[in-house]
């Protein structure tokens, strides 16, 4: 009886982390899939392989490319796998994903191309892996804050209230 109660409490403290990772996984999968759907993605014919060279926009707002969509699909699958496996991986998915999005947001914020061109010349093509559009910057920031907030909110020992 005590063992059953202990398992119930342990499951209750793990469920929120797994749910949060699964939810983020589903969101990323949907974004990745919708990025390949004409109509949902405006200027679909201009969908390029990567970065700033693509004029395609998800919902007419967020710049997307083939690699960008594939990255979202990969993040979606990773979130679902983490949620399926255990709470620790679910929390690590939220932490690493949040830190990656925060790093991308900082990179784009600091990578003012006009300043870089003045100081160092034309940046190499690989420096354009991320969109420099303001809507994309805000989305990266919100994803970073959201994933990191979920990481801290679903820490062990914070089960679902009874």
Would you write up a description of this structure?
This is DUF4383 domain-containing protein. Keywords: Membrane, Transmembrane, Transmembrane helix. It comes from Thermobifida cellulosilytica TB100. The chain crosses the membrane at residues 21-41, 61-85, 92-110, 138-154. It holds the Pfam family DUF4383. By secondary structure, the chain is mostly helical. It has one domain (2-153). The chain has five helices and three strands; from the N terminus they run αβββαααα. It has helices at 2-34, 66-85, 87-110, 113-120, 134-153, and strands at 41-42, 57-58, 62-63. It has a three-stranded antiparallel β-sheet. Strand 2 (57-58) and strand 3 form a beta hairpin. Helix 2 (66-85) packs antiparallel against helix 3.
Which SSEs are present, and which pair or pack?
Layout: H1 2-34, E1 41-42, E2 57-58, E3 62-63, H2 66-85, H3 87-110, H4 113-120, H5 134-153
Antiparallel strand pairs: 1-2, 2-3
Give a short overview.
By secondary structure, this protein is mainly alpha-helical. It has one domain (2-153).
Please supply descriptive tags for the structure shown above:
three-stranded antiparallel beta sheet; membrane; DUF4383 domain-containing protein; 5 helices; globular; mainly alpha; 162 residues
């Amino acid at each position: 009886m005590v063992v059953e109660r202990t398992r119930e409490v342990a499951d209750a403290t793990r469920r929120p982390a797994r749910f949060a990772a699964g939810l983020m996984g589903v969101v990323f999968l949907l974004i990745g899939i919708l990025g390949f759907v004409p109509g949902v993605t405006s200027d679909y014919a201009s969908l390029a392989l990567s970065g700033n060279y693509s004029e395609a926009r998800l919902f007419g707002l967020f710049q997307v490319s083939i690699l960008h969509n594939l990255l979202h699909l990969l993040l979606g699958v990773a979130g679902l796998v983490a949620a399926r496996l255990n709470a620790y991986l679910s929390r690590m998915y939220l932490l690493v994903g949040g830190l990656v999005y925060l790093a991308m947001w900082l990179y784009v914020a600091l990578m003012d191309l006009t300043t870089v061109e003045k100081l160092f010349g034309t940046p190499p093509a690989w420096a354009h892996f991320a969109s420099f559009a303001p809507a994309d910057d805000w989305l990266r920031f919100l994803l970073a804050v959201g994933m990191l907030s979920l990481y801290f909110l679903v820490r062990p020992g914070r089960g679902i209230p009874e």
